[in-house]
Fold this protein.
Amino acid sequence: MLRLPFIALANLILLLRSLLGLPFRLLAARHRPAYVRFRLTGDPPYRERRKSRFQLGGTRPEPAAVTSVERFRESLRLLAGDARVKGILLEVENLAVPPAKRDALVDVLAEFRRAGKRVVAWAVSVETDTYPVMCAADEVLLAPMGRVDVVGYAAEATALGEGLSRVGIQAHFVRRGDYKTAPELFTHATVSDIQARTVESFLDERYVDLVDAVARGRRKTPEEVRTLIDQGPFSARRAVEAGLVDALVSEADLPVHLGLVKAGEAPEDETELESMATYLATVPFPPVRWRRMKRLPRVALVPVSGVIVPGQAGSSDRMATSGTVVKALRAAGRDRRTKAVVLYVNSPGGAPLASEQMLEAVQRVGRKKPVIAFMDRVCASAGYMVAVGAKEIWSTPHAVVGSIGVFAGKFDASVLMERLGVHQTVIARGENAALNSNSRGFTPRERATLEAEVEEIYQGFLGAVAKGRGRTPEEIHTLAEGRVYSGMRAKGVGLVDHVGGFEAACSRALELAKVSAERFDVITYGGPKRRLSLLKLLMGAARAQVYALCPTAWGLGGPWGAEAFDDVSGLVGEGLRDLLMEWWDGVLRGL
């Protein structure tokens, strides 16, 4: 009850602030823009991220920047109800969203157009992944110096085996499953047929979607679109001739093109298209986010992003530490306002020990409140092990799912050391005491021990998935051994329950909690932090490790090759690791 007076006071302040600004908004109403400008760049989240009121530092986004899919949808719905607004100008620049989020943005634009409003998309340069968003507009414009780099999809599968041997490094790995191709990066001289076919299956699905999106948006046949893709990339002039864009317009001439300024007029001040914030300043009664007497139901979002590693350090975009994720899950479970949990998994895998810790934490929370696992990029190997603890698994159509398998190994740098004049002698007490030594390969006994460990972990992996999916280990084994699926194919074989988007997954989580609500809050627990010390990881990498990683994501635009290489290459010494990392980063930049 003590909360009610504070809510009433907060709403009174909001009301007073709104009334004080009313005269100024009435004066500005006659200048209400006919077109509102939005800038779509980077990877905006699905939901608006809450910011601390006392947070210092950081950079403010540009006023026109789309800060989340949620806020973008709310803004367009408000504009759709204003008869004085003709439409929006959507500037697209360096957009880097997964296919699922791209589809969510397209749906927002489609809803706005169905309300009778106009969408005009403009860019300086547009690439294959970005172009379908522009195709969702009524009119596609390009800067005169621009380019349309719509060329389809390509992935480079790499094999370092021969290259490593030339510098005196021999990779020794044990794997469980012919489809567990991750160690082939280091052991094979050429890319295997299995790895090539796996990558091709993902490229085929994405290519079909690209052709369909362009055909619908540009009113062409699929055959015409495939022909155009094979003729790309396009200069601005060729893009207009091919019908990929409607006109070439410089940024300065956009107001003239939209009819906001008459051609030939030279206003004293350069005319700029206004952002949503400026539009709200011209609305007499803009929407106010009143403080609710009754709180909205809350969904907890717990991210597992990056390579899964043990430890307590804070997570980053590249690593998900078991301690951070477990702590976040416990906090979500204790929060009484949280009715359900959505576990967002974006990981190619990692250490089985860490993933088992996370799985156990997911299962504990699941006994208190429903947990939904959601993936829109990569949920493979040890990442998938974490997900199977959820009540249901949701995936977007083209997410990378599965790769149920295990591998382990190390690097033998003895030949390289000899070439450098470094001589090492292994002195041990115990048959397997030098198992982790980089001065030699595995002895027969050491290899047998490692194979037994990999087999034991694999059987445990099968058991965990079988329990979570309500199947037998034998049934899961026929889908496992490192096989990788798209979200659609994973749904077909029973590794995923539903194919859908983020909002649908959150709504389903509340439904399982028996909470009926059209609106709800999403609060993030845990998540990436900017600062991260790699000291523990590098120290932990200096021995033979067991991994559960998915290599398919490495060649499909995911940044996972670098992390996996970060883990494994630490085995051959920091100096060599840095040298190889420089070379590997060059390879990744070429993908």
Summary: The radius of gyration is 27 Å.
